[in-house]
Design a protein that fits this description.
about 25% strand; single chain; five-stranded mixed sheet; about 25% helix; about 240 residues; five-stranded parallel sheet; alpha/beta
């Protein structure tokens, strides 16, 4: 019986892929690489391709950022049918994603449009914020502290999100960076943040001072952690 795999590759560091992910990649006949119209190679594929078996077919599948929700839903339905066609032919199909397949991943849009008759195997991956906290020895939560994970979007009330938790992970920060920086200043949290762009990659950049960030050129793969308890005492572990 054919299987549909959702495989988390990690954050961009080739060493952060799990053994389970490697074993799953070796089972694939078809590998789906998401294309959102960005002009860079899929990081997930650049890591995962090293473990694919010979003859594995690679399909670049478009997932547009069309503001029309109905259009996006129609596209997701078409993509789901494409996957099902391969599964019905007895092919193992895998979707590769940076981070975790169940955390803000395009993978779930395929999953919701595939029939329940197919076997699904989802392989957990390491999310950017989990990697960041370990990589830089910064506790994500301690004791009775609370945590929120917030994706920035046009309707996001940043100030309200900051007020509602002790620790906040801001994802997709490039979308509203200027506003985010201004509100962090206004709320007195400029000394409570760690922001990392291209985490785990050769061009990785670490920021504790948001004034050092070029707000007009924030990389797509950028994540920020705001820790109200402060980050200063943890900087001693960062070279």
């Amino acid at each position: 019986m054919s299987k549909f795999y959702g495989i988390g590759i990690g954050v961009g560091d080739p060493e952060m892929i799990t053994v389970k992910a490697v074993n799953a990649l070796k089972e694939l006949d078809i590998v789906i690489v998401p294309d959102a119209g960005r002009d860079f190679e899929s990081t997930a594929y650049s890591i995962g391709k090293n473990y694919l078996k010979e003859g594995c077919t690679v399909i670049n599948m478009e997932f547009s950022m069309n503001p029309d929700i109905k259009k996006r839903q129609e596209e997701r339905l078409r993509n789901g049918k494409i996957v099902e066609e391969y599964l019905n032919k007895g092919k193992n199909v895998g979707f590769l994603t940076i981070g975790d397949p169940m955390t803000f991943s395009t993978y779930v849009y395929l999953l919701e449009n595939i029939s329940s008759k197919h076997e699904v195997i989802t392989v957990a991956g390491i999310s950017s914020f989990a990697d960041m906290t370990a990589r830089f020895n910064l506790p994500l939560v301690m004791g009775n502290e609370t945590l929120k994970v917030v994706p920035l979007h046009k309707n996001c009330d940043i100030r309200k999100e900051i007020e509602s938790a002790d620790n906040i992970v801001f994802m997709k920060v490039a979308l509203k960076f200027q506003e985010l920086r201004n509100i962090i200043k206004e709320t007195g949290n400029m000394n409570n943040i760690l922001m990392v762009s291209e985490c785990g990659k050769e061009n990785q950049k670490i920021y504790f001072n948001l004034d050092e960030v070029d707000g007009e050129n924030v990389p797509y793969f950028s994540t920020m952690i705001l820790k109200k308890g402060g980050v200063e005492k943890w900087k001693k572990f960062i070279s």
